[in-house]
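User: Please predict structures.

Assistant: First:
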Amino acid sequence: VWTCEAEDLYMFEMTITDDFSKKEFVSILPKTRCLSPLESLNTMTQHNLESTTGTLQLDLDSSDLFQLLDDWYFKSTNMQRPTQYLQRFHANQNLDAFFYLPDVLVKSHKNCLETLLDPGSCPLQDPSYGELQNFINFLNIQLESCENSIFCNLQEDWANLRFKNFVVKFMIHMAKDFSTRSIEISDESLGKTQPEISERRKWESSHHPYIFFNNDGVTMSFFGISIDRNHNLINPDTGEVLEKNIMSKNLYEQLKHQNRQDQIPIFNMNFDNLSEQLKLRVLCRVLGVETENLKDPYNIDGELVDPDPSYKLTSDNVKKLLAIYMRMKANIPVVCMGETGCGKTRMIKYLCDLIRGGKPVQNMIIIKVHGGLTSESIKQKVKRAIDVARNNEAIGVQMTCLFFDEANTTSAIGTIKELMVDRLNDGEPIPKSSTLQFICAVNPYRTHSETMIKKLENAGLGYHIKAENTRDTLGNIPLRRLVYRVHALPLSLFPLVWDFGTVNQTNEKQYISQMVKNVSDDLKLVSSEESSL
């Protein structure tokens, strides 16, 4: 590579794969290799290093440099608070009197990574820095809310109950929903050019217990939490023990006592049996918009305004709503995967309407993505969305969402990735103070059945070109064999995709009943006519 000026610098960014050839052009250039957290820890152990302040030259016979854990990130609150709590938690110390110590750093980079990568901490065995960041961002947000909560300032009544130990234990359990990969994309259509994803969670095949410290600082919301007589955390549907001895008997009784005046039970709550108003109140409490959605702002216990009475709130879709909200709150990009028409857009609109609290503003901007959408068009829409978010924040709407629908149908998917993962718009950073959040929905990567492929090939319509000769492919799969005509996702979006699965029979019946009721209301049918419908 020749430079025209002394100040010129050429930089290439690339992913090293197992089949990387030393004959490739970039192999002759000096390289700085960015190691994963586990690789960084192993390198520090191998070379007897405790901390690093920059890039390292580990081999004197090579000019290659290695980047381990960034020192500025190590010193950040995001990394220090969770690590301080986890170290004391693993040492079985009582955390009730402990608060984050901003002036006392964890011992070293190595010690920090050992704590975070412990199997009892991060649920991933070999996370990328992005995945580890999502894990600790979530923990940091929740632990900070815990410290600001009234529950952490009731010293006499709560002495020796180990409330914070319970919180940290539960947060680790919750973090599986926020940092464990869930997609199965590589199975059908991405070919050998894409990474293998080995750790997967299907939404409908796993339980989702949540604890939220609400914005009022006084209440907590326990969602999907069932405690048996032995104080184990269990799956209410199957009776499976998810965590033994999740809390002590004294803590259990104290929490129930604290909750005695509330209409919403703190444990073993059957959400689907609650009234519509109580369901709405549970949701608004977590979102911090209970007051904003009151019909009468002077009656705190009064009726709430439902932004869309035709939308049926079930335990399943409320958990999904809260999962989306917590990801955005922890700055974890939200990528939803699901079939067209399964309700992704309407769910996010309902969430945004609640956050808006009845104010006459637009806080959800939808971009209908298609094959003709260009990067330049996306960039212009994002600039306008940043201005909208700024104006919304000025009148008290704390979150504005830009929603990319069917994001993987455009070749400009790389631009969407840059916005969501890097928060850059055409190379320009989106202001850190901006309340604009990005959500995208992607179509699943699914091939037609062999029977359907044969029918399509026999029908003609462009199938005169043999599948093995077409250049229009996704990995090794011809695009025409896919149910949805989609483009490959950038690699950094893979860990962020959440396949929220399919609706179970109980929830499906509830949705159908709600749709029948909506039609009945529109037609003004009497009860007997509605029953026959």
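Second:
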Amino acid sequence: MTSANCDTKVNGEPLWELDEETLNSGACGYSGEQIFVKNPACVAFTYDDIIMMPGHIYFGLNDVKIETKITKNIKLNLPFVSSPMDTVTESKMAIHMALQGGIGIIHSNLTMEEQAAEVLRVKKYKNGFITDPVCLPPDATLQDVLRIKHAQGYSGIPITADGKMGSKLVGIISNRDTSFVENVSIRVRDFMTPRSNLSVAREGVKLSQANEMLKASKKGKLPVVNDEDELVALIARTDLQKNKDYPNASKDGNKQLLVGAAIGTRPDDILRAEHLAKAGVDVLIIDSSQGDSLYQIETIRTLKSNPKTQHVDVIAGNVVTPSQALHLIQAGADGLRVGMGIGSICTTQEVCAVGRAQASAVYHVSKFARKHGIPIVADGGIKSTGHIAKALCLGASCVMMGSMLAGTDEAPGEYFYQDGVRLKRYRGMGSLEAMSKGGEKRYVWEEGVGGDGGSGITGSAGALKVAQGVSGSVTDKGTLSRYIPYLRQGLRHGLQDAGVKSLEDAWSGLYNGTVRFEIRSPAAQKEGGVHGLHSYQKRLY
């Protein structure tokens, strides 16, 4: 099968099309509809159960376009999302996911103030115009400068008349100013670079113009002032370097990194959402193992009607069927999260006997949600770049990863060694350990403390936590700056071999039958992996 966009010619004529008899025989695999809809055996399939058929390659590897949307309104340059788990995503992970073109979702096993602070760290990391820099007054001391440097990690501090943003600029402090000053009690006015020696930009200047001025001045910081010479913003040279190193970073309209955060469905989660919105969060994910509930519908409606949160996109879920998806779309969800009980640390299917094989869930929900213009995030079950390619070719707009990212340098936690292997802790949000930190709100709808809560269970038994996840460890995967490019190139290889030049091509091919699949037997799955060796070493990159 060849794409409609293919322009390959042989002796001046287009490639021949396969005859219908051969195509319909299954000789070139089967369409998604044949496998997932015309399914007389009523079997659900995982990523490992299916394999994609090769297509005609008429483009180079770097011509493969993988830009996508995570919600109706938010675009990403890379279809990768880090999971809101307390062993996966805090500000460090979110920053580096966004720098690579994806997005990180800050977990909610934090107080609302702590979670909002994590979001704020991401938004301030690459911030174009810094509109709320730390300032000092002229009578501050070197000790104050050193304290800020220790707490914030930088020493380029504007000096204003009263030490506040918006007042008259009188100077600036940089590393060069403090390098040879030993008396910590000396006043800032005695060693700062005075206003008369500063290059400044005027309010209203475009970021590109301000960046050129910063380059020309060869200074670390460029203050932006109004007609009254009052400080209104600051631009940092380090941001220029970051833009150079990460040209595909995911940014909002203010050139700040994109970031998401997880909330629950309890009443105080609306207040949490307000804190997150104030911090600048771009998308809220309602984090529930089973998303089709009155609680989640009410949460979506409240967020969409609340003036403090209605501008923030909402991803609802988790869901695995179109009927679940429909209710959340009706409530106003901007995106959907698909997956139930298929994560490496999740035991929901075992404990609750509810869920669905992920390939089937992704296919059916994405096909239905597409009718309403809603992107879906395939959450869980991703163990390789091949799984990423399959999820996207089955209709997902993005993939959410937990265990794939948990062993990286940017994930929370410290490395440790076991049997000579460098590891990091990784746990499900449904594990008892995560529940004790607040993760139970993802799984527990009602508690019977002080009564039965409508559950028919009284006393302490009503508060009994039933684990739907486990705790474990994952191997060291190094830094995201090397790991994400590996995942990106692996995905491009997969799409190229399937003969699709972009995710849009993959989705159109899925529904018109040009992207083909086949079901693999257990023996075929074994054959498709490493086999027949006494020993081997597997290196990813």
